[in-house]
Amino acid sequence: MKNEMDAIVKTALIADAVPNMPWEPKPADCKEVVWRHSKNPIIDLHPMPKARSVFNSCVIPWKDHFLGVFRVDSLSMDPMLHLGTSPDGLDWSIEEEPITFISPDPALGKVTNAYDPRLCKIDDKYYITWCNSYYGATIGQAWTTDFKTFHQMENAFLPFNRNGVLFPKKINGKFAMLSRPMGLGMAVNYGDIFFSESPDLTYWGKHRIVFTRGPGKWERVKIGPGPIPIETTEGWLLLYHGVTDTCDSFVYSMGAALLDLNEPSKVLYRCQFPLMTPEKIYETAGYVGNVVFPTGVIADGDTGRLAVYYGAADTYTAVVYAHIDEIIAYVKEHAWK
Ligand code: BMA
């Protein structure tokens, strides 16, 4: 009991307890700060009749089990958001039909192209943000309280923008979001992370740069926020994707930075090295090879354990584990000076 109490006191994580979260201890021979789930990928190619692949998705603890909002690319390759349920956060049943949203205004158009969702609980509501289509890629927003009825809200920004990631609480009385404005198309070679705030989740402004791509080669092409920021006593831990280019393609890795708790556009530490790069066959080979794209996280406030969900090669869903204190120590030790 004493050891358990020590663990509770030591961890920097500020989060509710999730004692049933997915977890595997770090293998004895692992020298990294993140380690992969031994049975990755947890969602394989073509997992249901109408789905080509399921990836870049996010999950939350719900009652005694887990819920998720999944990016499902259909056989026609059109991405949509689908609800999933799981007893343990690893074995998922995903609904065949996409989530339908109650629209606030017909002028917004139907949700026909939706991908890379993030899921964020703020007070008593669960918010989904995703890459929506409205004359180009922008940030769609919706809320639910029961995961049965989903209320769409206004798009947060003008096109072009991707990777809209809400903070799980208001900061200085305002809703807060990270996003990555960028140009038309996937292959543009720029994209930096910005912070924005809003009194009501409709009108977003006071946009501030958080950090730009580079300076390391592994993230020289573009960057984008990953899962919702993780609150710790040391700052907001932001896991993000960083993209580099090679002779024939891009490579997506996972990086980490600590942002100021009260002023998240202020970067306290930014790690020089990625925490994870594509290594396993399910990350290097698929519809888009060499992609690890983190979008979801479950954090246990009692133990400091993290399970990070990521899309692998735009084809599979996979999980890595980490301990918050180890990540923070690593980010600080290897921060750009
Ligand atoms: C980005 C997004 C992601 C995707 C990644 C790698 O631009 O489209 O959904 O995982 O490219 O293809």
TrEMBL record:
Keywords from the named record: Glycosyltransferase, Transferase
Query: Does this UniProt record's set of keywords contain Chloroplast?
Result: no
One Pfam short name: Glyco_hydro_130
Transferase is among the record's keywords? yes
Per its UniProt record, what InterPro entries does this chain match? Glyco_hydro_beta-prop_sf, Mannoside_phosphorylase
What GO molecular functions are on record for this protein? glycosyltransferase activity
Gene3D superfamilies per UniProt = Glycosyl hydrolase domain, family 43
Task: Please state which protein family the record places this protein in.
Answer: Belongs to the glycosyl hydrolase 130 family.
From the Swiss-Prot or TrEMBL record, give the protein name.
Answer: Glycosidase
